[in-house]
Amino acid sequence: MTLTQRAEPHDPPESDALLSVRELHTEFLREQAEPLRVVDGVSFDVERGKALAIVGESGSGKSVTVRSVLRLLPRTARTPSGEAWFHGRDLLSLSQREMRRIRGRNIGMVFQNAAEAMNPTLTLERQLTEHLLWHGICGKSEARERAVRALGDVGIPEPERRIRVYPFQLSGGMRQRAMIAMAMVTEPALLIADEPTTAVDVTVQRQILDLLVGLKDRGTGVIMITHDLGVARYFCDQAVVMYAGRVVEQAPTSELLDTPRHPYTKGLLGSSVEVGGQERPLLPIPGSPPDLAHRPAGCAFHPRCAQAESPRCQEEQELISIGDERAAACWKAETGR
Amino acid sequence: MGTIAATEDVDTTGVTPAERPVSGTGQHEAPPRARGPWARAWDRFKRNRLALISLIFCALLVLVAAAAPLIAPYHFGATDYANQLVGVGSEGHVLGTDQLGRDILSRTIYGLRTALIVAFGAELLALLAALVIGLTAGYRGGRVEQGLMAFTDVMYAFPSYLFAIVMVAVLGRSIIALIIAIGIAGWVTQARLVRAQVLTIKQREYVEAGRAMGASGPTIAIRYILPNAIGPLLVTTSFAIPAAIAAEAGLGLLGLGVQPPTPSWGAMISEGTRFLLAAPHMLLAPAAVFALSLLAFTWVGDGVRDAFDPRGEQR
Amino acid sequence: MSDSSRHVLVHADDVTKTFSTPAGDVQAVRGVTLSVRRGETVGVVGESGSGKSTLARLIMGLQPCTSGRVLFDDQDLSTVKGGDLRRLRRRMQMVFQNPFGSLLPHYSAVANVIEPLRLHGIGSKSSRRARAIELLDTVGVSEHFADLYPTQFSGGQQQRIAIARTLALEPELLVCDEPTSSLDVSIQAQILALLAELQQRLGLSCVFISHNLAVVQRLADRVAVMSHGKVVEEGPTAQIFDAPQDPYTQQLLSAVLPVTA
């Protein structure tokens, strides 16, 4: 990854947040075309012991956002500007070597599909103790002890025995738990979970979320990428809604879902089906998310927006603060319509 | 935790606007151009300059081979005893003559004809055999598959040069013998590939959807599976053609090629080495054209491979 | 909706399906009895590996039952062979989970919709095309885009094309296997609205398979809950959701995370 034109020096923002992302921009290089702007000026904070939901549909840039922060982008991507403050350091200006020390040690990661994220040729023991040993956190016997404890903590029965198995010998739900154990074994301050429950059944989803609640209670900050508003409401304190690479609304999760201000958030709620809500008419958002190479001018949502009758909707929409904790990128949001 | 799957969020494969999915909103916008799998493969092939130039060069080679009697100044067997072993640039013989006074240019052109007939013939044969056997084995499964694949494995284990020697011994030194010898050496890997492709494609939902619509077995195999299996097959075939050209030359070099005086590049190179010091041009012309055509066909193969690269095909 | 005099269109009678794997036999479906009356939508919910997708394929006759039988309009599917079975398939169609995977990649959108008509020799070449365009219009795909290929459409549009294709043969039974689970929330809502509208307008009988309880509650008249290859509970939708009897159903419902307060 290349980092270009980074303004130096810079100071950490004056918030006491665990992670502060400021004006993050990420683009993908293309053959014979302008770079494709995939993340466009995204800012958010993650507090200690709190969870932030990043909500959005596929192509909204939510995964690329966290991968930019983690510096885990493919070679064709770059982050021309933005900051990501973590423990007083800007992750985006660290060397790859320093970044490797932070990943896995201070920041844990959980992905949607454990089967793909775990190394199929290594036992759980090897994979769980790898970070502890590699970062020199502890010695071999203590690493093993901590790994067993981590497996027990995530609710894997008989951790002493299970630690010797390979990932494929576990069921999907167990594998997902093992991956969480792997992310947690170094006791990172921040956990990034990218759709961690999308591939598992509802009953397992509930168990995994309850497990993550326990971590949060112990002070871990969590970023949870999800398209499931129920998961966001259940687990996350704060939420940002992304559309076409930008944050369109941010608010405490319950407020966001109870009184959505941005038409897209309203549309997501109108589109979601939930048990007991069968009498409520489905109100799908027409059309599909925009192709980023042909982003609509102005507000990217206006071609699908039921309320876009004013010419102002075809202008760029800045995030407008609504009260202390909320903001929405729609000029109508202020009036609460 | 070392490996990170590519981000699912964004498509970075450099797709052109025409390939982007259409959104459902604009009902009145002009529709993008319809691009099926073949059209998209051609689009991608065209973007590779080297492959495109190589393809044009190969097409030229085919034309020259087809029109050899019109283009070649002399018949390949015509001897000019007054001008034996004359060098490049001699009057009447641009590329010189060999020890019998035969025109090198004409013989190289006819050698091209031999090489291409053998290579394309052999690959066509290999392709047909591979398709029939691989498709049948892959689609039918069970005993039929076991039997066919056992046969294929036996053929695979058989040394191909040995087989070629046997073929030539049985059928004599003819173009047909060479086509069969090289073709049979080639179909085995192709058949395995077809079978593997068919087995993969059989798992796709569209095959099941086809059955659910009421399509019969042959319809599914030929109309649904085959067209989607053919891309990778085309890739191996385009690499097999230069290999077959080389094999033809190799057999010629070993004296197993076509019956003289019909020219073969292998035989010409072999003769040329005998007069290497006295008449280096005898070796140079056929060797240069041989090398160039191998390179061009291989570059076309590269282009075909990139064109059928499954990246960006899955949506 | 428990009008017992209504004619049963498809009836699975104590069906089981056992797959042989290198690790031993796996019983995907164990003794399931289920019927779908005309004009009715039966939802099948269950978690992954509960056998619900296998049940869908048994009902469609795409896989033979290990034991038991499936009666479609009183004909035992296992006794119908070859051409007769293919003709019977006209009357039952299936929507798959992965729309891109279920469309022929080398056929244009309209050619995909024409294909079932062609297979069954319905209409002339031009009337087939006209009908296919009409069907695409029904599901909300503009004629402008009819000649594009599946990769040129978004996932939601692909699923619309797949639905248009299933409607081409005017089936009596539509089996939907997780038709929206690979789609985004906003697109899922579009497809659900479309399916609900088609059901009503065409009077389709439907088997709707999903792991998503909310989706099933919205579309189904009756629900069967599957776990480990068995139907653990079956009944009218309201009854299953409001007063679940089986502990497993209760567990499933209690794990649901509400979106609205």
Structure description:
- The complex is a heterotrimer of chains A (337), B (315) and C (261).
- By secondary structure, chain A is of the alpha/beta class.
- Chain A has helices spanning 62-70, 96-102, 114-117, 124-134, 140-153, 159-162, 172-184, 202-217, 229-235, 253-258, 263-271; strands at 19-30, 33-46, 51-55, 77-86, 89-90, 107-110, 190-194, 221-226, 238-243, 246-252, 320-322, 326-328.
- In chain A, helix 4 runs parallel beside helix 7.
- Mean pLDDT of chain A is 87; it is low at 1-9.
- Chain B has one domain: MetI-like (MetI-like fold), CATH 1.10.3720.
- Chain B has 315 residues and is mainly alpha-helical.
- Helices cover 66% and strands 0% of the residues of chain B.
- Chain C is α/β, with parallel strands linked by helices and 261 residues long.
- Chain C has a single domain, classed as P-loop containing nucleotide triphosphate hydrolases (Rossmann fold, 3-Layer(aba) Sandwich).
- Helix content of chain C is 37%, strand content 26%.
- In chain C, the strands form two sheets. Chain C has a six-stranded mixed beta sheet with strand order 6-7-8-3-9-10, sandwiched between helices. In chain C, strands 2-1-4-5 form a four-stranded antiparallel beta sheet.
- In chain C, helix 4 (109-119) packs across helix 5 (125-138), helix 5 packs across helix 6 (155-167) and helix 6 packs parallel to helix 7 (185-202).
- The longest helix of chain C is centred in the C-terminal third of the chain and has 18 residues, at 185-202.
- The chains are: A alpha/beta (337), B mainly alpha (315), C alpha/beta (261).
- Chains A and B meet through strand 2, helix 1 and helix 4 of A and loops of B.
- Chain C: Pfam families: ABC_tran (PF00005).
Total of DSSP H or I helical runs spanning 4+ residues of chain B: 11
Major beta sheet of chain C, specifics?
6 strands, mixed
Number of domains of chain B: 1
Q: Any idea what the radius of gyration of chain B is? A: 24 Å
Q: What is the chains' assembly state?
A: heterotrimer
Reading off the top of the CATH hierarchy, the class of chain B is best stated as Mainly Alpha
CATH architecture verdict of chain B: Orthogonal Bundle
Tally of contiguous helical segments of chain C = 10
Portion of residues within helices of chain C: 25-40%
What top-tier CATH class of chain C fits best? Alpha Beta
What is the end-to-end distance of chain C? 30 Å
Q: Identify low-pLDDT runs of chain B.
A: 1-28
| Strand order in the largest sheet of chain C | 6-7-8-3-9-10
Shape, principal axes of CA atoms of chain C: globular
Would you identify the CATH architecture of chain C? 3-Layer(aba) Sandwich
Q: State the major sheet of chain B.
A: none
Task: Name the biggest interface.
Answer: B-C, 38 and 47 residues
CATH fold name of chain C, please? Rossmann fold
Strand elements of chain C, count = 10
